[in-house]
Design brief:
The chain is of the alpha+beta class. The protein has helices spanning 2-16, 35-48, 114-117; strands at 55-57, 69-76, 82-89, 105-107, 122-124.
Length: 126
């Protein structure tokens, strides 16, 4: 029985050795999210902020440490400050995203959202 497990692992390893992801650091020319991405960003933002009004960055942002396509979100808090979120899409979206394919990363820690704090390209999310 143990030999079968070793064989399965060896075969799986050789089959998956050439796999890659479409995630990549955000290129400078990544531009703005397309309509499907905006729809996904807005739906995710509504869930994160529980229906409160929020804004998103106009285009993709470079998060430095993160690979993928990052977008900043923010919602006002009491005292005039903002609650920032960095939403990282692992690949560009074209059409609907199934629950199985939904592998976006949501970062909300103060140390992770530094790329969002001093932005000026905010647009209202709908």
């Amino acid at each position: 029985m143990r030999e079968i497990g070793v064989v399965i692992l060896a075969v799986a390893g050789s089959l998956l050795a050439g796999c890659r992801t479409d995630a990549a650091p955000v290129p400078a020319s990544a531009g703005a999210p397309n309509a499907a991405e905006v729809r996904y960003i807005n739906e995710t933002g509504r869930a994160i902020y529980r229906g409160r009004p929020f804004e998103r960055s106009r285009g993709f942002v470079s998060a430095g440490f993160a690979s993928g396509y990052a977008v900043c979100l923010r919602a006002p808090m009491q005292g005039g400050r903002f609650d920032h979120t960095l939403l990282i899409l692992q690949r560009r979206i074209d059409g609907a995203v199934s629950q199985v394919e939904d592998d976006a990363t949501i970062l909300r820690a103060a140390s992770d959202v530094g790329a969002c704090r001093n932005r000026t390209d905010w647009v209202p999310a709908r």
